[in-house]
Amino acid sequence: MAAIYSGIHRKLKSTKTPWEDKLKLAQFAWISHQCFLPNKEQVLLDWVCHTLVSCYNNKLELPDDVIEKLWIYLDNILHSRRLQSFFKDGKTITLRFSIAQVINEKLSVSYTQKTLRNIGTVLSCCSGILSMPPLSIVYTAKFELLVDLLSKLSWLACWQLSSEDAVSSQLFEVLILSFRQCLLIQRQQVNANRVFGQVTKHLLQPCLLLRHLLTASVWTHTDGVRIRQHLNKEIRNSIETLLTAGVFQPELLSSYSEELLAEKDPHTIKKRGLKNLLQPASTIQTRLKDASFCQPALHGKVVANSVPLLFKHFLESYNKAENHLLCFHMLTRLVGCLRISCLQGDLWNKQLSPSDWITELLAVEQLLNSVLSSGIYNVAADRIRHKEVQFHFYRQLAQMLVSHSQAAIPAWFRCLKVLISLNHLIVEPDLDDLIASAWIDAEVSELRTKKAQEALLAAVFHTYAKLRQFQKLFEEVLSVICRPAAEELRRPILPVGIRAKLCECLLDLPPNQILDIVSLILEKYQTFIIPDVRGDSDVALKLQSMSTLLHSVLFHMRSLDDSTPLPVVRRTQSLLETMQREVIQALFDLLKDCQAEETELELWTEKVGDSALLLACTWVAVDTLFHLNCRQYASPLAKTVFAVPDSTVDNWDFSAVLSGLDAPCWEKITKLLSCSCSGSRYCTEWLVLQTMKKMLMHVSSQTESLHQALQCAGAFILQSGRSSMNGEEPEPWDGNAGTITSFTYPTAHWHLVVSNLPVLAPYLSMNDTLYVAGVLLKILLANQTQAAPDDDDDDSLITVGKLSRDLLLGPLLPEMQVLHSSFLSHIVQHCASIVASQPVQQLSAEDIPWCEFDPSDRVASIGPSNEGPMFVCWTAMEKVAQNILSLVKGRFWVTLEEEHIKRLLDLLEIISALHLDSLFPLDHTRCFLLLFSLAVNTTANIACSGATLSLQFTTTCFHLLACLQTGRNANSSFKVFHASDVLEAVLTSMFVACKTIANVWVAGPWDRFLHGTQIFLERYLQVILERRQSVKLNLEKFMSFLATCKPCAASNKHSENWSPAADQILLVALTAQCHVLTLYLQQQQQRENRQASGILPILLEQAVLQTGAAIQLCIRNSTKDQPLPLAFIPCITTLLKADLSCAHSVGLVTGENVQRSPPKPSKCQQLSHSELYQSFYVQILRELDLANGNVQFLHSALQYITLFCSTPELYPAQPTSVAAFHSIRKLLAGPGVTVQVIQELEVQLTELMAQLVANCTTDDFYAMLRMVLEGLDVCNIWKQNHEEVLSAVTLVKVLLGCPLSGEKEKAFWLSSPQIITALVMQTKEASQDPVLIPTLIVPILETLAVLLRQGEGILSNPHHVALVFSILLTVPLDPRVYGNIFLGIHEVLFSILQCHPKVMLKAAASFLNSFHRLVISAMHEGRQKGDRGTTDEFEVVLKCVHLVERMYTYIAAKTKEFTMLSPFIVAQYVIELQKVTLHPAVKKHLTEGIYHILDLCLERDIKFLNVSLPVGVREVFKELYHDYTHYHKALKQGDEKYTA
């Protein structure tokens, strides 16, 4: 055979052999072991490489398909296992350098032709070469070849990203390999200049373009997850590393210095000569300005995206104190590459589009932020040493930004903010233009831009506040306001965000500076505004802006008090007098001369009126505040004697709060401004309100004239805004009186009314009170139908909806009884307009004085009397009650359509928001009648509305009726009703409704309906018992009524008057009766009140017999082999409780003469329905297998089983306990029982298990343990029987929650080592399947933690506890259930640390390794991310980090065990900290925890860490230790100083 194949080499070299045969021979020779060829691998590799090189050198002409096959053959060789094993055996093989050149040339051709066709094999070959060090030497030995390859691949990647085709992951993977090799070889190069030249010449442009395209690309699903998430980021990081290592090497610092500082010292150039100067900065600048490497439209964006990156890495490489000037000069060079540095004059906005401006400004912002964070600009050093070269540069930049305003771009504001942070003098020469373009004249609408604008102005305010030059700032602001401009286009001067920032600064300013500002504004009024405002709309608008500003300044300054210096008080008083006399009075004088007959005011008149009244309100508020808080302040009004004004609803005299005008003048002014629906009307209302407050403060006793004046004032305020409240939804208001317009006035007016209701309400007439209540209800109903706005800053604005909702939910409305009753009257009227029901119509009758009563009248709290309006109301409600009952008995129902029900549900939602427990008797009874009538006198049109909506409506009615029974006046409804009549009416209406719902009901709404009905019946029966009036009569009558309601007999299944739904209603009523009687009887027996309980046992016995008979009949009528209805289980549970209570009561009575009486029968014999309970128990056990995770059914079933098992007389305990345990085990292993279901049933399972364990024998308990251990057998998980394992794990946890004693406790803990071993084995197996992590591993960890905690002092063998460490290191921290897994591992570790100290002594290393795994995970999840994820996910991370901090603290408390290991804990933490950038909230918790470990470290430990840690990690540790000594250690030593 060897002879046959020995001529292959000659055939490959022969020109006569066809190329197809040569390829086949070469392929066969490579894979065949029978082909013997000296140095075969090297020969074949040389042959294919030589052939390819010859083809590309034009020495050999071959068809394209042959060339492609040659590449494929080379690729197969490079990726073959034969070649890999060849290298593993230590053999050598070489590759020709020419093949690297061919590959580079092939990539270049592909880029030139703009195609990736036939390039995949070449890329694969390149990947094979680069991934094997013996072959990659063809690139690594020649740095130029490697740079050329990387350049070609980068250009190719740029083209593919620019094209519309899907991105190839193969190209990017080869690019990553090339970057890694290039970085490795680049570090080994000795000649820094050569590396710089190669990088800037061949790599700078393509790498920067590639980085920009990767950053700006919009990825699609066709691009692949690996490219989008991994390769993208890795390539960008590699580019940055490559540029840093190639362009900003430490060896190039001298070259940068000689070039950039040449202007500073030109003699250095003469000494060395230009020929020897590298000029790296100019090289970079030239390459950036060269627009030929990409499309012209893309060039500017690439440069703007690259310049901040280059400057950042320049700072990282060279930023030291002595190089700050060098860094600045590099900044100027890089800024010179941006387009904004080349444009001049008016050409700027023409040549740069808005998108270009955004890109350029973002670049400038990043550059300035780098300057600020690096600290290269020192104001003093720049001025003293460098002739302010940096200052002049930033000045030019600021001039450019201010002169070419881009107020629509957030980055423009941020750039100016950074410049102010550098030095406020940079922008101060252009401060007026800055204020004009960034504030006064800025058109800002987008939220992000608003935030940037607010941040800039906040920086301006805080800067000048710190410099104590706020007066200077306001001089510029006022000069801008007074500039001639088209003021109609100007937005409000103080939007809500800017006003908030201004007010923060005003609060911190000393009073004298505030007074300086006020003085400036008043001076502008007197010299510029008031003399020219008449007839000039432009000046009037300036007046409005200035008035708003003065209002904000005075409203948000700190108040004068008794500690204020007297000169400040006197100056304040003087300025306020000047303001009142020279400004406010002058403005009112202008208004007096205007004509009041005009229907529409001129613009200047309207603005003068708004400003005058706004300043008047401001003056009154400030004067009042100063007068109340400062005894040294003398108010001008204090000299006058207060008199009650003689005013009417239409005209008002404000002389009491603002002197200077008499009543006729005020009448003329108010009449003139009455047609304005803006700020002036609001200010007038505010002045009236202030007058009311002044009257209440200065008049000691209530007189008729005072009361009449207060009523007129309240009526005036409501009448002023009545017309505006009838329109559409008003706009939100920012709370500033100076910004009120006709669109926001209704909101401001309603805010004034609602916020001052305690003052207004006592003096409002009945009509006005009804009006306020009507507006309140109208707004609430309108807001229920509107979607909530999504605006982020909506919380800072005031809306009528928010005001009304806050009033409804707040504690104020119930305190105002008349308004509360009026509001209820409007609700009743709305219901009457929807429901054509006679009782509801009677409740809304207008001729009955429902709200006309004196709040101080005790009749309201006592009930009906024989005279007065109360008697009329109670008489009317008695008629309504009888009408409701007669309609029920007569079977008359009002049919409701779907639209009616929806509107009624809106009203019921408002009723539910009222404080129903605080209603007065009349309102309580009226509300009860309304809800009761809606519940029993109406029926839904099922064909139109469906059963769901109908059930929701009825359920809501009964829920509200139940809430009324908990109120303080729950007894008031019994004054118009007999209790039994109410109960009969409820059940009668429900039975009739069941006929229409029976065929269309839905399970969920029906169950909620039954629950709501039961709650109402129970609470109503509870009130009947607590009243202790006619209890026997009402309950016997109700029982007799229930006796007439029989479930449908088996022979009459199709009865028209009954249905299965009615069966459940009847059972609910009977169950409610038994439940209430049982509870009440038990409470009385606990109080040992046997005389009062004489009637109740008899009634309870009757109820038990009646309920049992009804349940038995319903069970007999149910379909065979079908599960029982869910409602039956709570019913029979309640019946058993009642039967047991009844039997106990009989035992109390018969137990008095125990010695004389014959032996009493057992409790089982006394129970009325023993057979029913036993058969039901058997049936429930059988139906547990059919539960399918129905939590509601399981909850009820487990409660019944627990109660049944607590009555041993009903069954033989021993076999039944084991059978019940087996059923529970089978249930937990059944379908649909998930971890969430088990968590919801954990309490019921524990109660049941405790009962079973208490009743069973020791042998039965052994049998139970055997079942558990069988479930924990590892064979179950091998057989994919995961449910059986989960069932056993749950049973172990439940058994741990049961009280064990004696032999049972001993048996359990003797089997605990076997349980721990089984749990460890199960965890190891489950960890291999990600699906089982949330379903099985989490419960196992929780069970282990409980087992270890309760095994403290019992688990004597440390080996059994140490077994747990083997799983803590292997359990995957799955992101899907990260919080649960983290908590489970932490709790296991904490249990070992806290409860098993002996184990800790032997396994401290294993413990720390397990805990360090949690620390690493928490740091990884808590790192700063661009996409932070949801708030819930971050909350989970914070909880985990808090657990880490707690563990650190507890470890530090175990000083003896961990003192030796504390430096290693710190070292592990610092090494991980150096790898990530933590979120501040995460870092805070982790830092606090590691500080406690540092407390354990001795001085030698700190020295050891400083010596042994790597260089980068050492810096992180030094910073950490510095913060520790500065903050934590100093605080600790201070605490210890005062500790005994």
Q: What would you note in describing this structure?
A:
Helix 27 packs antiparallel against helix 28 and helix 58 runs parallel beside helix 61. The protein is mainly alpha-helical. It has a two-stranded parallel sheet. The relative contact order is 0.02. The N terminus and C terminus are likely disordered. The protein is built from 74 helices and 2 strands.
Helix content: 55-70%
Biggest sheet descriptor: 2 strands, parallel
**In percent, how much strand structure appears in the residues?**
under 5%
Summing up helix and strand content along with how strands pair, one would put the structural category as mainly alpha
Overall pLDDT level: 83
Count of helix runs:
74
Number of strands: 2
Oligomer: single chain
Would you identify the regions where 5 or more consecutive residues have pLDDT less than 50?
A: 1-5, 266-276, 345-349, 788-793, 854-864, 1049-1055, 1148-1165, 1534-1540
User: How far is the first residue's CA from the last residue's CA?
Assistant: 97 Å
Write down the overall geometry: flat
